[in-house]
Amino acid sequence: MVNSIGGPRSMILIGIVAAASLVAAQSPATKPKITSVSKITTAEHQTITITGSGFGTHSSYTGTTKFISLDDQTKKWEAGFSPDSDTVTLIVNSWTNTKITLGGFAGKWGTSNFTLAVGNKEDIKIWNAQSSGGTFGASCGASCVSKTVTIVAAATSTEIRSSPNPSVYGQPVRFTAVVTSGDGVPPDGGKVRFMRDEEELGTATLRGGVAHFTVSTLDFGTHSIRAVYEGNADFAGTGRDEESARMTHTVN
Question: Which tops the pLDDT comparison, 145 or 14?
Answer without folding.
Answer: 145
